[in-house]
Design goal:
Length: 364
């Protein structure tokens, strides 16, 4: 976040003299949304600060895994390009302008001369790709971490400049955001920035793209509570529950993932759905074993459904597609927790462990 004192000083200078933007912290300008289908192939930037940012010397780097092509392309922002305070800028990638230039929209063109180093470009693909935002157009600085402002990759990993993004703490090795289906975009949830363990978890598939507008979904998928295991369990570790995608109406990708399951020993998982969290002071309905008090994080008195599923090795996937969910469900809140059991008559203790909980709110 921009220092408040600096923001006030910059605002005062803007009112009386020239725009002072090059000193703005780079992290205030972020990649915000990507679309890659016949109805739009663009990358969007968002300036989260209270002052404009001059992008005249900045560039976008697009990486692919397309065989027999350069797989690495650079496009320079034109001189005089400014990103307004709290504004958005959409760049139509590898496309010629279809009409007069409008505010907040740029077109890279398709001529090799429009791109740096004469490499040209290739169209955006929703199946895989990566974008980097650099605060430079100089080739000698494009391998220097301090000039790399932001990064996003989707569909897979292993792109050019990805190690630099990992080195700068902008991304994590082996991680990538979901592929982008036709009709949707890959959008960044501003409410998740700085609050999730991995940068790719800030991104979600948006079934209603919002070009040049905030990515406000209302969707929530936040973990709470603690996982717990009993002595003598067969788990590979504490059973950790997460929702890698946001619960968005129309999303086919929404699911839960339960880590550290074995997938053997007649092991099953009971997924419990509740309307709320366990109130303070309310005891557990689970029996303690060997002095270990495993407790539910969800309110068992408000359970409205349970699923019984066989576990899988390492990670048990719990698909919960929201493709047929009515828009009337937007705003619905539910809480989820997993209990791992062995369905053998001789199994003891009676359960292996219980996960943390996940609070979900359906968004759009």
């Amino acid at each position: 976040m921009t220092n408040p004192t600096f923001a006030r000083l910059a605002a005062a200078l803007l009112a009386t003299a020239t725009v002072l933007t090059h000193a703005l912290p780079a992290q205030d300008v972020l990649l915000s949304e990507v679309r890659a289908d016949a109805n739009g192939r663009w990358i969007e930037l968002h300036n989260r600060s209270a002052v404009p940012v001059d992008l005249s010397n900045w560039s976008l780097h697009y990486s692919t895994h397309t065989p027999n092509l350069p797989q690495s392309y650079w496009w320079p922002f034109p001189a005089g390009t400014a990103l307004a305070a709290n504004g958005f800028l959409r760049v139509h990638w590898y496309q010629d302008a279809t009409g007069p230039q409008t505010a907040g929209v740029l077109w890279t063109g398709t001529s090799p001369y429009a791109f740096l180093f004469g490499l040209g470009g290739e169209p955006l693909q929703g199946t895989q790709g990566a974008f980097a935002l650099f605060a430079t157009q100089a080739s000698a600085q494009m391998s220097t971490g301090s000039f790399l402002v932001d990064w996003v990759s989707w569909g897979t990993d292993g792109y050019f400049r990805e190690p630099l993004a990992i080195q700068q703490g902008l991304w994590h090795a082996g991680r990538y955001a979901p592929a982008i289906p036709d009709g949707s975009s890959l959008a960044r949830d501003p409410e998740r920035i700085g609050l999730v363990a991995y940068a790719d978890q800030q991104w979600f598939v948006d079934n209603s793209p919002t070009p040049n507008l905030p990515n406000v979904t209302g969707a929530v998928a936040e973990p709470y509570g603690q996982a717990c295991v009993l002595p003598g369990n067969h788990l590979l570790g504490a059973p950790t529950l997460s929702a890698p995608a946001l619960p968005l109406v129309g999303s086919a990708a929404f699911r839960f993932e339960l880590q550290n399951t074995t997938g053997i020993f007649a092991e099953f998982v009971v997924i419990g759905f509740s309307a709320g969290a366990r109130p303070a002071g309310v005891g557990s309905i689970l029996p303690a074993y060997a002095g270990v008090p495993c407790q539910e994080s969800i309110d068992t008195m408000q359970l409205f459904g349970t699923w019984l599923l066989p576990t899988q090795i390492l990670t048990t996937m719990v698909p919960m597609p929201l493709t047929n969910v009515s828009p009337a469900a937007v705003g619905l809140e539910f809480h989820v927790q997993a209990l791992v059991v062995e369905l053998l008559p001789t199994a003891f203790p009676p359960y292996q462990g219980i996960s943390n909980a996940v609070r979900c709110v359906v968004g759009q």
